[in-house]
Amino acid sequence: MQQALASIPAKAVTLVDLTKDANAIIRSEETVFTVNSIGSGVTKYKATITILNENGKHHAKLYVPYDKLSKVDNITGTSYDKSGKKIKTLKNKDIIDISSVSDFSLFEDNRVKIANLTYTIYPYTVEFEYQVTTKNMLFYPLWRPQSEEDLSVEKALLRVEVPKGMKLRYRENNLQEKVTQESTPTYDVYLWQVKDLAPVVEEPYGPSLAELVPEVRTAPTYFEVEGYQGNMETWQSYGQWVNKLNTGRDVLPEATRQKLQEMVVGATSPEEKAKKLYDYLQGKTRYVSIQLGIGGWQPFEASFVDSKGYGDCKALTNYTQSMLKAVGVDSYQALIRAGDGATDVITDFPSSQFNHVILCVPLPKDTLWLECTSQTTAAGYSGSFTGGRHALLITPDGGKLVKTQFYKAEDNAQKRNIKVQLDEAGNGTATVTTVYTGEQQESRSQAIHSLKPDDQKKWLYQQIKVPSYEILSYGFEEQKMRLPVVTEKLELSLRQCATISGKRMFLSPNLMSKWTYIPPQPEKRKTDVVRNMAFFDSDSVVFELPVGYTLEYQPQDVVHKSEFGEYKATIKVNGPEVTYIRTMQMYDGRFSSESYARLVEFLNNVVKADGDKVVFVKNIN
């Protein structure tokens, strides 16, 4: 081990300073993936990483996951101090082997080996090496050597070896150089390399890190998992493989079929039937993760779920599809990448990019999407978890990419009405009614179903943005519709809602909806502006002042418009009554980097307008 390994060599800083804004530096990284056949492969990984500070110390821990279909053949590791002196060499007893079963899992064989070379004196360097053999060839490497912000890369490479005649599919993004190819007597070899990558920083309202850093996606054409062979060259052929996994797993007991048919007697449409059975599903079943070998992709039989009352997303979706089939309603399973803020799949690169399964019920005029793992979600609501993205519909002919429900600004609404009675000291009592719809109701719905009443009240104290108050009473009403609605009712005691200074009263009429965040304005914006959620907020606030005050100053009506949204605020004073009306609508979309300054200006204007005050003078006889 040379001393130069722990320090930054001069040649690395002639092109780019790898230490600037970095918490760690990947000195070298090699990933070699060898395809032995359509059903087996080997990954060899080797890396040398210099840890520069406390924020980079997680790179001194190596996590190697495995399961029934994969085996960790070996792990080695060594650490060195800043002078290159060896600190520690990993021994087998230092490698922890733990279950990575999630809290909501019943059956899961996922495990992880953890090698820890954390040290307390910076900088220091770690070397890791491991090999994993797999019998799950659904996944080929996704190579992203710059996997986070504040990480620089001196050099890294990906080498993929496939048997001659076997087609490798790949997709490149943000690379310094394209792939180079070579051959051995038995393999076609694909090689990608990067070097001297300075840290990348995600900008406010910017694209995800995956868009900004070098990336190579690889995928098979033909593959096999536990005897199930498939072709992934097109979305259609990938869907055909999923159909193989599902074949014959939709059979329900005859008694259940008869019960379901009786349940929908009187239902006049496929949608009405689907909603009745969805309600039945939510009352009968619960979600439990089941990940065992091919069970990570193949659902349990519908009869199993029917008798046991639980299943994972695949099993519950398959069960719901089977129930609908029993009452004559067609439906299709749909693979999707779920999660609030999850990026959409890469549509031009068929591969296994999904983590969830939902159900699609085609109707004469539209589509009903069903989240079969939830006991509380309204039928037809996709929301932030699965809405507005691509899903792979599994039809009898194979896979077909479709878009799930997209929610517009008026769908994601917050409509609030407030009445405030002020006293001579500026304190007040407020009655607040707020109607939340779409994505804006999700947090309230979760609080309703997951929190006890005392915890709901604590949660509300964290949500309500009023300087000083006490919750006297609260309540929620939920309407489960395709566009769900939660109505929240509050009674608040407000301390110093208005400020009294001598004979003047200063009133800030925007009581609960002040916008406070203004993103920083760099000298030069590098990336596009990305807004993922559209919303519409409206507030109507009526203040009843104590007697004896005369208006001294009233702000003018405010209107601000930009490509990002529209803001309006008006104040009317009629004797002792002050009425404040505010609306703010924000659009989603992708905008040029040059527009960022206009976004900052727009939000600055909103913050300023939200802080406006009305001034009154007390009459003195």
Automatic annotation (TrEMBL):
Task: Please give the Gene3D superfamilies that the UniProt record associates with this protein.
Answer: 2.60.120.1130, 2.60.40.3140, 3.10.620.30
Q: Where does the DUF3857 domain start and stop, copy by copy?
A: 39-200
Where does the source fall among the domains of life?
Answer: Bacteria
Task: Give coiled-coil spans as residue ranges.
Answer: none
Q: Which residues form the Transglutaminase-like domain?
A: 260-331
Record-linked InterPro entries: DUF3857, Papain-like_cys_pep_sf, Transglutaminase-like
Question: What's the protein name?
Answer: DUF3857 domain-containing protein
Q: Which organism is it from?
A: Pontibacter silvestris
